[in-house]
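Running log. JK asked me to keep both predictions on one page so they can be read side by side. First protein, sequence followed by its tokens:
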Amino acid sequence: MAQPASRQGADSLLDGLDPEQRAVATALLGPVCVLAGAGTGKTRAITHRIAYGVRTGTYDPSSVLAVTFTSRAAGELRQRLRDLGAVGVQARTFHAAALRQLRYFLPREFKRPVPHIVEHKARLVAQAAARLGIEVDRAAVRDMAAEIEWSKVHLWAPDDYLEQAANAGRGLVAGLGPIAISRLIRSYEQLLAEMEAMDFEDVLLVMAGMMQESPAVARAVRAQYRYFVVDEYQDVSPLQQRLLDLWLGESRQLCVVGDPAQTIYSFAGATSAYLTGFERRYHDATVVELVRDYRSTPQVVSLANSLLRRGRGPGVELVAQLASGPAVVFRTFPDDAAEAAGIAQRIRELVQEGLDPVQIAVLYRTNSQSEPLENALANAALPYQVRGGEQFFARQEVRQAMAMLRVQAKVKSDEPVLYQVRLILGGLGWSDQAPGERGAVRERWESLDALAALAEELVLAGAASLADIVGQIEERAEAGHTPSTNGVTLASLHSAKGLEWEAVFLAGMADGLMPISLATGPEELAEERRLLYVGITRARRYLELSYAKARFAAGNANRRYSPFLNGIWPSADQVSRKARGLAVPDQADLTKDQRELFEKLSQWRLEVAESASIADFGVMTDLTLRALAVRKPANARELAGVPGLGPVKIERYGDALLSVLAGHGPVSQ
């Protein structure tokens, strides 16, 4: 029996979909959970699902709300749906959808004007702090604003902050403890009330409150939207989930799409718990895994899968669909400048081979790592653009430091040059020890620390005066500000999420940068691994990972590649270590006595890791323990010669290590 013409037209939408994508497109009634690996065509699957539902008459287009997390992603969804004939479907961010509803219902149902929406918190946070007599700078304001957002997306009332922050283990924020932050939040909320304004989190909170208070509003919203699709579901916050639950009511018509292996915004309140727990909430849910990777070569996919398997975290095993490509490249350099120059040279080669610079990206963990890369690309006359942040020399703290250095350079001084530099940077908040705080305070310190390292590098290269240092840094700044709009992308791993390039260079893949030294607990380390996974899966064809043994030329060459790459980094690195006399035997090659000592050291490491609630490799890697078992250092000076033991670890663990090595048994610290 022939199908109706309308049904035949609908089925044509399924042409070209792979079996898993087709399963998503035809699962029209919820609950549905789509676990979509990187590059597997999730947007194609969900847009065809919506279009198929509209074409078959299952959905009225106006009854569908597709929710995602960025305006760019929402715009892409709308365009694809229009191209598929699903005109009238709403595709919005959580905030845009909630604001539209709020503007409609607040005047009609509650007879209240719509408050002014504060797009940026900084000014109000600064005013709230000033009311309390708290002195703040730009970095502190950013961190305070982030903490206010954190408390709101976790549905913490201002009066509950103290208890909730203690339960969540929140530390100092911009140097302030929980009591001060609690007072700041109340001051901030008072300012909003006086202005008759609300911020973006309030939009979701107020809309949720309206639906709870008014059955009429709840009925109207649920009558309008009957089918929900939520993209990037691994990134929802408790506040967004609360609003989604209220939108749904008793309905089960929900399709969620996400990848727990790409949860990298926990610091902003995102959690993959709602995605990974979807089947527990909906026992009869249809679950589809999208595993066919259409973005990357088998070489790139294999590396991504290896990283994911070693982490034992949730995620799908990708199956590459593209033809074989070049091998993933792993490179080790003597210092950061050499690494940047090597990356720039390789990019130049790719461009000469015909690759458009816009199809190339260099990704790194922190924005402060961009300076040598900007300098190297400028020296190589390669156009570039910094995504998700200002160029290094345009950052406020760097410009402020340079202004003060210029003034100091005109003053006659008998003090050593580096002493003068560090004194000035110290006055701006820099110290030789990284702050324990996160966010803007840490980013500011990293920028100043990069400037301190650059000054030290220039002195070692022959700069004799502060004026020499200032002049050479200004030359770099001038070269680094080469105008470009269509060049190589420089970006942090976070800001690269959702993007892809033909060639990707992952720079700074050293322990302490990946994972970042601030990540110590199991959850933080797992998120760092996911961040590296996101970086790897941005590459289509060319992928190179690199790290520098030292920060600058003639520096202490004690860096190692990321522990996440243990068992992955090729043996060529071991060959280069042997050439420098730094070889460390594999565990199988140890003598009986060395193996016994290695086991004692491993037991000591386990005790330390458990007492600090961190991963064991966060204390020390197996390579370092093997080196200790082989060399049996007897004092701090000999410890300093062991790969992986820098001054900080020697200060922290040196006495305990020497005790174990002397035969006194495992000693926790």
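And the second, directly underneath as requested:
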Amino acid sequence: MPGHDRTSRPVRSAAVAALALGAMLLGASGCGGPATTGCPESTLTVFGPDRSVISLELFRALPEEEQVRRTRQSAVLLARARNVSGTQDRLTLLDQAVSADPGNADAWLDLAAILRRVAEDARTEEALDRAGKAIAHPVDPSATDLIQARARRLSLLRAWHHYDRGEWTRSYRWAKAVYDAEPGNDAARVITGLLEARLGNAGRARAIARDIRLADEYATEPAWIEACLEISRGLDREAFSFVATLIPRGVFQSECWRDMARIAERLGEWSYARRWYQESAANMPLGDVDCLGQTDHARLAPGPRASVLPVWTGMEGAYVTGSLSSYTALAYDHFKAAPDGPGRDRWAGVTVNAAGMCIRMGLDAPWARKTKGLIFAAAGETRRALVDLRRAEQEFKTLGVRDPELEAELGHQLILEEGYDEALQHLREAVDLDPDNARAWSDLGLVLVTMGDPAGGEQALSRAITLDPGLPTAWYNRGLMYMHRGDLDRAADDLGEAARLAPDNQDIARLLQQIQKKRQ
């Protein structure tokens, strides 16, 4: 995610020049760093900057005796990892196994299975890619059954990875490949049935559900598939009826509880959502849940206190389970609280990623889209910000929602694009909804001055200064207005205050020098 400095944009007018200061001095607020977790923060050397897990090509170039030694060591470490229950211990041992032998496909697959639960997407995808390379270049190409079994496992892990992200079409390609090759594969049958349902393929989804029920009349997956089919039709209440009394069991019960909770959350059934998310966390196949951090947080959409829902996080605060809407709001709070630098950029990316998942899954989608737009705006990506903010505004209108923050940011971004007429509409709406928003008043004042209403502009800028005397943008914009009017004394006073509040800004210093020369 690009940085927070918009000042590199070409200056196209005096009005936009005035905005440069405001863009540079936006403040941050919110909660602190990521939730504390027991998961290792950066244990996996494969993801470290030194790339200390060597490539498969370099490994195969080692002396044969060294390869044999490291392969044996890796096998021992993999066996040990499969016999410990603690997530931290398993991750450490698996990391050591792939470090010893990057061609150990089973170690990579085990690692990817855990990382899917506790790590961010980049680490999971890296492990999946390295597993794929190891499978594609086996030591013994004649072991076709073993190779095919590993390839099927990899495909299903990829399918679940994309399912978790709401990427139904991408997930379907991986799941269907295994299902077509092995229709009797229980794991492939479950996820393929879910994806047929998510994609609205009712006949195929129900056929798979019937097959599962014929094999096990007590299976819980058919009801899950039926619920997903109703969700694809927008029938959330009907989906809820399929799972209201369901008690998931089997390999995928954590995922089932999570999907059930999301249905309840969409319907505002907060007690069900909370309880089912708790079941999802408790049934994670990690051997222990102490590794997970748990936080209660408000969702993106405003609501009653009961709508504050739990979130479980893994490595470096990555989403594991719980309310994805609450997690997106939590990640956005971390972004706002972080100082400029890699940490802030990282939380920007996490927030955009989580918001995208909310949108794909229909979880507080308008608010998620607004959050994406706010991140792009803070990053200086004005056009991407406007796409999301405008779409969010239309969705809010459909819901009858008026959002002052959205209106204010739309106005701000439109000024950067010199769309002053449209900006004026949004900024008037923003200050009408939130009369105490100093930044919106400052932007409104700038637009009014630019559009030939200096009296209205001065009034709005003065209102901004009254509300927030520490807002350098308002002092700067009003001082610039006075300077253009020829009122050098008042311009010097306002620009002097702006310089005091933003001592490192060279634009202010140059304007003050110009005023001094004109006075001589």
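Observation for JK regarding the second prediction: The chain has 25 helices and three strands.
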